[in-house]
Amino acid sequence: MPVIRATETQREFELFSAPAIKSRIRLLGVDMRGGFHYHTLRAVEKIKKKNPDAWIHAFQIPPKIRFARHMLSSSQGMLMPYFGVDSYSRWVVPPPPVPLTKDKINVFDKSGWGVFKRKEWTGLHGKKLTCTCPMCKGQNLDGFYIGKVLTVLSRSKVHDHYAQQDELKKASESIRKHQYGRLIKTKKYANMFVSELKNRLSLEKKF
């Protein structure tokens, strides 16, 4: 499987991926380099439309989307199918330069496809967990965050895996039925991102 790095422009990605596309590959990897590279994703979208049978996997996907210079609460991984990506892997990052604390750990919220730290989650849901995955079942937020920092971090990663796997199954089914857009509208933070994206696209067309 060839893997193409995300680029700053759509044209660059199209040029770098052209040899692989011409060879009619069935698998294509995209290295997102730990960010939301919009122009690369637009190029991927075009590739998928022309080659619907090709499987596209995105590497190095961060928890949240950084769009138009600010961080959004939307889960970046859950919105990859919007651009034609079939599967993805989360990013691998070095240890943080400052000590990690429990309050800095991000947790995926399957009810709205958002990603939140503990205080943000408490503000939205109180101590209730919105997930019934094997990691969360039978716990409240206090139970989820009990233990050492690395224990909680590991717990959050396992939760993210189970919760996102369940949601991606729903997304795949909705895509097969051509109802992915309808599903996104039921997911608050995914819908907020798509609405902002459409607004910015309409502004770009005006200018």
Topology:
Layout lengths: L2 E3 L4 H13 L4 E5 L6 H13 L4 E7 L2 E4 L2 E6 L11 E4 L16 E3 L4 E3 L1 H8 L15 H4 L4 H28 L3 H6 L2 H19 L1
Parallel strand pairs: 1-2, 2-3, 3-6
Antiparallel strand pairs: 4-5, 7-8
Helix pairs in contact: 1-2
Rounded to an integer in angstroms, the radius of gyration calculated over CA atoms is 18 Å
Gross morphology: globular
Major sheet? 4 strands, parallel
Number of helices: 7
Beta content: 15-25%
3D structure, described in words:
With 207 residues, the protein is α/β, with parallel strands linked by helices. It has a domain at 97-206. It has seven helices and eight strands; from the N terminus they run E-H-E-H-E-E-E-E-E-E-H-H-H-H-H. The protein has a four-stranded parallel β-sheet, with helices on one face. Strands 4-5 form a two-stranded antiparallel sheet. The protein has a two-stranded antiparallel sheet with strand order 7-8. It is globular and about 55 Å long. The termini are far apart.
Defining traits:
alpha/beta; 4-stranded parallel beta sheet; 7 helices; 44% helix
